[in-house]
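Slide 14.
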Amino acid sequence: MKIAIQKWGNGAAVRLQRALLQQIDCEIGQSLEVEVVEGGLMLRPSREPEFSLEELLSTCTPAKVGLSEEDKQWLDDQPMGKEVL
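Slide 15: predicted structure.
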């Protein structure tokens, strides 16, 4: 299969047909890994690990957050309007 390299702004782009995306189990908006192999390009779906919200929040500690004094004052402020308490 041949596809054309087209101008896109100051760069270049190629369009992948839906059938190609289905064959590699990809969707529009998904990332691809690109590697130069023997004078050509190898495109692979990026299979980044997925984390749950609980896993991500478990890594947040007060030391990592690093709140400024202004942030701390904001957190202690009282509601000014119809905020849910």
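Speaker note: The longest strand covers residues 32-37.
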